[in-house]
Design a protein that fits this description.
Order of helices and strands: HHHHEEEEEEEEEEEEEEEEH
Radius of gyration: 29 Å
Helix content: 25-40%
Number of helices: 5
Distance between the termini: 47 Å
Number of strands: 16
Length: about 325
Amino acid sequence: MKIYLNSEGRGISGVLASPLLTLASIIALFASISLYPYLAGRTQLTLLLIPTVALMINFLALLFVRGAFSAKPALLLFHFCLFSLVILAIIGQLTYLKATLELSSMEAFDGRLENVEAGLFHDYQLDREKFSNLGFSISYRPGIKRDSTVNRIQLETPGQKLRVVEIGDHIPLVLGHYRLYTTHNKGYSPLFRWFPDDNSPSQLGSVHLPAYPINEYKQAREWTPPGSQQQLWTMLVMEEDVLPENREFNFSIPYRHHLVIRIGEDRNVLRVGEEIRLDSGILRYESLTSWMGYKVDYDWTRPWLLATCLIGLVSLSLYYLNKLRRL
C-alpha cells in the first residue's frame, strides 16, 4: 500500500518534508555540537548522527515530495553545499587529532605525542614517519619580543636520501594530513650520559627544563635517572646574559653556565664533562642543548570544507544575479 501525498503534504512524507522538522533538526544539531566536547565516545557519535540523518531525510523529502528548488538549480546546489558542510564537519570531528610534542636538538621522533585530543575514528599513523629536530633559531626584537622562528627538520624516507626542511610558526612540516608547527614553547635541555653499575650499556638522554624565557627564574626540574631510585633536583645557572632587552638578539645556548643538582640534602655543582656518583651508577653531564615544542594538527576535511564553501558562495551569487536580472 502506497501513501499518497496531495499538495497539502499530508501523511508521513508530509511530516518528513515539514519545515518544523527542519527547524527541530537544526536545533538538535546545534545542541549536539554544543554538548560534543563534554561527552565521550559513542555518545558523541549518536548525538551527531540523529539530527544529521533527520536533516538528510527532511532535505530529500523536500526535493522529491514537494519538488523544492526544482526550478532553481543554483539554490539547490547551495543547499547541497550546506548539507555537505554539516557532513564534513561531523566527519572532521570524528577523525581529527590535536596534540603537542617536544624534541631536543638532534633528537629523533619516537612516535609518542603529549596532550592528545582525537576523534573517535582517528587512525594514528604519524608513528610511521621518521624525522629529527636538527635545531632552531629564534630572533627577538628589542624588549624581548619574539620575532621569527626557523626550525630545521631532517626527514628520513625509505629508499630516498635524507632531506632537510625548514619550518616555523606558520610554515608547517607536512606529513600526509599531519601538520607540525613550531610554538613559543621551547627551552634548554641538559644532556646526560648514565653509566649503570650492572655493566649494561650507557644511556644518553636529556632533561627538558621549563620553557624559556617565560620561566626565566624557574629553570629547575626534578627527575630520576633510568634504573636509579634517587630523585634529582636539577637547576640551570647561567653565568652570562642571554636576554638583552635593549637590542635585537637570537636565542642562544649560554657558553658559561653550570648545573646545581640536589639529592636530598646534598648539593652538587656540575660543569660540562663532570660526573657524580649515584646509588646505582654514575651520571656525567655532557652538554647543554635546547628543545622545541611543536603543535600537531590533523584534519583531512579542511580543503574539502573550503572547496564546498566556495561552491556554495558561487551558487548563491548566481541565484541572486538571476533574480536581479528579472527585476
